[in-house]
């Protein structure tokens, strides 16, 4: 593993402060990915923001790994503007009732990202101020980026406009 | 009396269809419903090089109430479909519709849950244009097909 000096400090700091919660550290194509336990995600976020100046949360996204256990994954992509480094934090969630604490307490920017993850995967964010769908209609019953959702959608699940004009017009 | 006697019995009533159709077909004002990259080709079709004013359709009205032909150019989401239908319903009769490009005709490469697989799911389309995006020539071709269609319509009803 080749970690730059600021990233080495981040990884060491994470291991010291949250020893059992840091599950795996991994590098791929120049990106550093730290897998953590979902329980203390707020503490980890606060620690990274306060101590290592990861003040810019670039994105939060989900994945459906389609595995029997720990099916869903929430990934936080953040940048430390002081140290000019990028870090990915991953947390895995079970298929039944996937819930994680909302990162909006740490980064305001997480609000819409988490709404998108909720819309696409049905992962719930505990303590989110406004957890509504962001892309799909509010009465839509499915979560489109889950693997079992058909590519072309469920016929009739989204209303098309009526092709007979309103008689009052 | 008057013109009737000069031209012979029934002449005006049988030929008024042709007169109205001639007028309509040479002044089919488009309603540009530009949704994606096809709209760029639609602008070329209206511009000086392809010059749709040769066919009397140079007035691209952005008001549905002044237009006759709606050109749906680009891929249409379920969310947008309601707005398009609303604009279409505001256009005065008679009106025609062109589905421009693969996406508007069939959904094209957007085979996914959010995109309507062809605007004919909620609009009566008269002419489909293939291509991704189509050349401005093909839009002219579709317009000429619409003109042919207008010229063969019965525009005047016998009021009895």
Name the CATH superfamily classification of chain A.
Answer: NADH:ubiquinone oxidoreductase Nqo5 subunit
* Unreliable residue stretches of chain B: none
Beta content of chain A: 25-35%
Structural class of chain B: alpha/beta
Distance between the termini of chain B: 21 Å
The chain-level mean pLDDT of chain B equals 86
Q: What is the beta-strand fraction of chain B?
A: 5-15%
Task: Report on the architecture of this protein.
The complex is a heterodimer of chains A (169) and B (160). With 169 residues, chain A is of the alpha/beta class. Chain A has a single domain (5-126), classed as 2-Layer Sandwich (Beta Polymerase, domain 2). Chain A contains 3 helices and 7 strands, in the order αββαββββαβ. Chain A has helices spanning 5-17, 41-52, 110-121; strands at residues 22-28, 31-36, 56-64, 72-80, 85-93, 99-101, 124-126. In chain A, the strands form 2 sheets. In chain A, strands 1-2-5-4-3 form a 5-stranded mixed beta sheet. A two-stranded parallel sheet of chain A has the order 6-7. The model of chain A has no long low-confidence stretch (mean pLDDT 89). By secondary structure, chain B is of the alpha/beta class. Chain B contains 6 helices and 4 strands. Chain B has helices spanning 3-7, 11-25, 38-46, 78-90, 101-106, 136-151, and strands at residues 30-34, 69-73, 96-100, 127-129. A 4-stranded parallel beta sheet of chain B has the order 1-2-3-4. The longest helix of chain B is centred in the last third of the chain and has 16 residues, at 136-151. The mean pLDDT of chain B is 86. At the A-B interface, loops of A face helix 4 of B.
Write the topology of this structure:
The complex is a heterodimer of chains A (169) and B (160).
Chain A: H1 5-17, E1 22-28, E2 31-36, H2 41-52, E3 56-64, E4 72-80, E5 85-93, E6 99-101, H3 110-121, E7 124-126
Parallel strand pairs in A: 2-5, 6-7
Antiparallel strand pairs in A: 1-2, 3-4, 4-5
Chain B: H1 3-7, H2 11-25, E1 30-34, H3 38-46, E2 69-73, H4 78-90, E3 96-100, H5 101-106, E4 127-129, H6 136-151
Parallel strand pairs in B: 1-2, 2-3, 3-4
Helix pairs in contact in B: 2-6, 3-6
């Amino acid at each position: 593993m080749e970690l730059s000096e600021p990233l080495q400090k981040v990884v060491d700091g994470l291991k010291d402060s949250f020893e059992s919660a840091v599950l795996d550290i991994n590098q791929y194509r120049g990106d550093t990915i730290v897998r953590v336990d979902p329980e203390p995600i707020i503490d980890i976020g606060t620690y990274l923001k306060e101590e290592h100046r990861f003040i810019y949360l670039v994105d939060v996204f989900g994945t459906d790994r389609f595995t029997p256990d720990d099916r869903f994954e929430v990934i936080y992509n953040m940048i430390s503007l002081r140290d000019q480094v990028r870090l990915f934090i991953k947390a895995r969630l079970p298929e039944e009732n996937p819930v994680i604490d909302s990162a909006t307490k740490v980064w305001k920017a997480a609000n819409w990202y988490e709404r998108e993850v909720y819309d696409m995967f049905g992962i719930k964010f505990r303590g989110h101020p406004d957890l509504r769908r962001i892309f799909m209609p509010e009465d839509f019953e499915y979560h489109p980026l889950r693997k079992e959702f058909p590519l072309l959608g469920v016929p009739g699940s989204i209303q098309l406009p009526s092709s007979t004009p309103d008689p009052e017009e | 009396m008057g013109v009737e006697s000069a031209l012979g019995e029934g002449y005006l009533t049988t030929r008024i269809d042709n007169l109205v159709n001639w007028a309509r077909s040479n002044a089919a004002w488009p309603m540009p419903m530009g949704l994606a990259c096809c709209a760029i080709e639609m602008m070329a079709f209206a511009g000086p090089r392809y010059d749709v004013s040769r066919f009397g359709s140079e007035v691209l009205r952005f008001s549905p109430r002044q237009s006759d032909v709606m050109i749906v150019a680009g891929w249409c989401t379920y969310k947008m479909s309601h707005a398009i239908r609303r604009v279409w319903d505001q256009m005065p009769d008679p009106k025609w519709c062109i589905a421009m490009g693969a996406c508007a005709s069939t959904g094209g490469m957007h085979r996914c849950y959010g995109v309507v697989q062809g605007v004919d799911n909620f609009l009566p389309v008269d002419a489909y244009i293939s291509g991704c995006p189509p050349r401005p020539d093909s839009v002219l071709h579709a317009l000429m097909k619409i003109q042919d269609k207008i010229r063969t319509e019965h525009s005047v009803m016998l009021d009895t």
